[in-house]
Amino acid sequence: MAGSRVIAVDLGGTKLLAGVVDEEGVVVRRTVRPTRTESQDELVAELEGAIRELIDDGCGAIGVGLPSTIDQREGRAVNSVNIPLAGIDFRGHLTSAFGLPAAIENDANAAALAEHRLGAGRGARHMVMLTLGTGIGGGLILDGELYRGAVGAAGELGHMTVDLDGPPCQGTCPGRGHLEALASGTAADHLAEERARANPDGDLGRAAAEGKVVDAKLAVDLAAAGPGDARDVLEHVGFVLGTGIASYVNIFNPEVVVLGGGFARAGDLLFEPARKVVAERALPPGRDLVRIVPALLGPEAGLIGAGLVGFEVLASAS
Q1: Is there a contact between 192 and 216 (Cβ–Cβ < 8 Å)?
Q2: Are 168 and 91 members of one domain?
Q3: Which long-range contacts (CB under 8 A, 24 or more apart) does 88-94 make?
Q4: Long-range contacts: 41-48, Cβ < 8 Å, 24+?
Q5: Are residues 224 and 277 in the same domain?
């Protein structure tokens, strides 16, 4: 039956994940492509190609998660920090290209929606989600609903300042000392490289001498083996992450903070330092209530959330 499934797309900084999602949030077919960052035209063409690969008569709508600030009034992707996508009527473009109702959402908002309905935040009325990867995305569930703000641009939690004199933020962001610049996977990459250069005899330094790529992934692998520079890097990043989470706890008083994204594979090596900071620096009673937990839906959270957004627009169009 037409409309029983939707096409969902989760567009990331390095890869594009697309799939057919059913009404239960199950991804029944999927495809993965690299994100084309040469130009906006190349990027949009790659996304359209992924949709065409999957679309069939049973698909009633399209939902897309974008790493962008969104203006929902016009269905426009206003700005993107890490990919060449800005000022485009994305919703209108997709509707015109495929003849189906389309919806767009910030990618971290989509992941938060999925984790709230089907994952680690299920049953919570108030939830904060952070997606830890190339950058830091954020999503807010307030009183049981995804909070989008005045026009749809809310939830840019990675762009909260945690150090006034900190490093410039990434990509096109004009800020400095943002959480994203200090606690993302990219930030861990830089810290691991710096530690390897500063201490050639440490675990990271020895790995560099062996010709290994020193980055956040290597730091996680080495930190799991025991104490050393790699573990120190993750503890430092976790401390900064916890500083940001403590502020979110004070501001939003969530029942749960869900941590997802590729860098979240570090698990308690990252989460425990963050929990410790929250316990020390957040205000009661919020600090005593909140749980900081890993996401349950893994790398498909954003894709499932994009599907849920697709079903929302399908319901409104019927």
Answers
A1: yes
A2: no
A3: 88/40, 88/44, 90/64, 90/66, 93/44, 94/51, 94/62, 94/64
A4: 43/11, 43/83, 43/84, 43/85, 44/85, 44/88, 44/93, 46/16, 47/9, 47/11, 47/16, 47/18, 48/97
A5: yes
**288/249 Cα distance (integer angstroms):** 10
Q: Which residues contact 61 (CB under 8 A, 6 or more apart)?
A: 3, 6, 7, 100, 101, 102, 103, 310, 311, 313, 314, 317
Which of 117, 31, 118, 100 shows the shortest CA–CA distance to 63? Answer: 100
Domain count, the chain: 2
Residue 117 inside a domain? The answer is no
| Same domain? 182 vs 91 | no
**What pTM value is reported for the model?**
0.92
201 and 222, same domain (yes or no): yes
Residue 160 is part of a domain; what is its CATH number? 3.30.420.40
Residue 317 confidence (pLDDT):
82
Q: Per residue in 135-156, pLDDT tens?
A: 999 999 999 999 999 999 999 9
Task: Label the pairing between strands 145-146 and 102-106.
Answer: unpaired
User: Per the domain annotation, does 134 fall within a domain?
Assistant: yes
What integer pLDDT is reported at residue 3 of this predicted model? 59
Q: Which residues of the chain have pLDDT under 70?
A: 1-3
Q: Quick check: 105 and 306 in contact, CB under 8 A?
A: yes
**For 256-304, what is each residue's pLDDT tens digit?**
999 999 999 999 999 999 999 999 999 999 999 999 999 999 889 999 9
> Which residue range forms the structural domain that includes residue 312?
5-112+299-317
